[in-house]
Design a protein that fits this description.
This protein is an alpha/beta fold and about 250 residues long. It has a single domain, classed as Uracil-DNA Glycosylase, subunit E (3-Layer(aba) Sandwich). The protein has seven helices and ten strands. It has a seven-stranded mixed beta sheet with strand order 2-5-3-7-10-9-8. A hairpin with a 2-residue loop joins strand 9 and strand 10. Helix 1 packs across helix 2, helix 1 runs antiparallel to helix 5 and helix 4 runs parallel beside helix 7. The protein is globular, with a radius of gyration of 17 Å. The two termini are about 25 Å apart.
């Protein structure tokens, strides 16, 4: 992982250390880049839904630089893989019988699979995760498999969003898919130079447009969070939206 990402994540942890609810256990997220990821799709979620093992900490534990360095090391280790693709390795761990997280029940990852397969002629069922770059709007979240509270979001939003901008500049993606819902992505996009298109009349899609970065721009689609939604509606809506932005095929990398 790049030194820019590590520095940005350290800033997130410093802001978290000042959070008032310092007794709650938290987990930290570092983006995962598939072994074949080349910018064809950046997938953005809301926040980490637990790691599936005990890697938690409390906000007060991050006051010292030494404590933050340890958390950074552990988090970045989770986000890399000696076997090749960190996303695939994480999915493999979730498929184990003793895993609390059930990958086959995840609408989020089912949608991601169907979308990325559209943008790669070689993304086979067992290899599709290799082509993804996965990140989240918020880099710290509760250990107990739920989204950050409003107070935690307010504490870390500026540093988390600053880190996401750094990720976009480093990856320079052709497409960014926010599987977050409008309310989650809206404030981040307002803090950037995002150029919105007309509000699309596409089911499950709230916003489309382009986000400039140094040397180019990414086509952006903001869609519903897939939980408890019809997967086909979201997949079809996302693909339709990217097509209308001129990024609807694998040849438009």
């Amino acid at each position: 992982m790049s030194p820019e990402i590590r520095c940005a994540l350290d800033e997130v942890l410093q802001e978290t250390s000042h959070w008032k609810d310092s007794t709650e256990k938290l987990v930290c997220f570092c983006p995962m880049r598939g072994s074949s990821a080349d910018g064809r799709l950046m997938l953005v979620g809301r926040a980490l839904n637990g790691w599936g093992e005990d890697t938690s900490f409390k906000a007060l534990e991050m006051v010292s630089k030494e404590a933050r360095e340890k958390i950074l090391d552990n988090t970045m280790k989770k986000s890399s893989s000696d076997s090749g693709c960190p996303i695939q390795s994480l999915h493999d761990s979730w498929r184990k019988k003793d895993s609390k997280y059930k990958l086959n029940r995840s609408q989020f990852w089912s949608v991601a699979r169907e979308v990325i397969k559209k943008f790669s002629t070689t993304a086979e069922n067992e290899k599709w995760a290799n082509y993804l770059y996965w990140t989240n709007l918020y880099k710290v979240s509760p250990e107990e498999r739920r989204n950050p509270s409003q107070s935690l979001k307010l504490k870390i939003d500026s540093s988390s969003w600053k880190m996401l901008i750094i990720e976009i500049e480093l990856l320079q993606p052709k497409r960014i898919l926010f599987l977050t819902g409008q309310g989650w992505a809206e404030q981040f996009l307002k803090s950037t130079t995002f150029r919105a298109s007309e509000v699309p009349q596409i089911r499950r899609v709230f916003q489309t447009g382009f986000l400039p970065f140094h040397g180019g721009e990414a086509a952006v689609v903001v869609s519903d969070h897939p939980q408890a939604k019809k997967r086909r509606e979201i997949v079809d809506g996302v693909l339709d939206a990217f097509a209308k932005l001129g990024r609807g095929s694998c040849s438009q990398l």
